[in-house]
Amino acid sequence: TVASRSRESFQKICELRPGLKSAHFAPCDITNKESIKALIDGSDLVLHTAGPFQHSNNFNVIEAALETKTPYIDVCDDTHYSQGIKGYHEQCVAAGIPALTTAGIHPGTSNVMAAHIVSISRGEYDESWNYKQPTPGE
């Protein structure tokens, strides 16, 4: 099942990812926790990709996942939102459901790129882009 605010947005997703055309469409409003609960109750997993997550205080999806005991993953790339999700840790443990935040590509890629830039600025690569062996005392 792929949930979206409207059938039109679902159809746009299917144009970009034709493999989703066989998926079931379900309308869902993430500002309405009861709508989310009705959709995910009995599901194996909820994968929350309905951003933008930046500075959001809408935690309805994780709350619905908790109330229906549905494992949760999001692709958040915002520190504020991910800290908010981490605030549900104890409740998730008590409910026995896994919850994973910031599972998207952006934070991981951004961190690798930042580390790479630091390594370049420190001169940690040789001319073939291999890490140099540090000399004793470095």
Write up this protein.
With 138 residues, the chain is mainly alpha-helical. It contains 6 helices and 5 strands, in the order E-H-E-H-E-H-E-H-H-E-H. The protein has a 3-stranded parallel beta sheet with strand order 3-4-5, with helices on one face. Strands 1-2 form a two-stranded parallel sheet. Strand 3, helix 3 and strand 4 (72-74) form a beta-alpha-beta unit.
How are the strands of the biggest sheet laid out side by side?
Answer: 3-4-5
**Total count of strands:** 5
Shape: elongated
Q: Fraction of residues in helices?
A: 40-55%
Biggest sheet layout: 3 strands, parallel
Question: What are the secondary-structure elements, in order, as H or E?
Answer: EHEHEHEHHEH
Relative strand content: 5-15%
Measured between the Cα atoms of the first and last residue, the distance is 55 Å
Contiguous runs where pLDDT drops below 50 for at least 5 residues: none
Number of helices: 6
Report the average pLDDT across residues.
87
Q: Helix- and strand-based class?
A: mainly alpha
- CA-atom Rg in angstroms: 20 Å
Question: Which terms would index this structure?
Answer:
138 residues, mainly alpha, 3-stranded parallel β-sheet, two-stranded parallel sheet, 6 helices, 5 strands, elongated
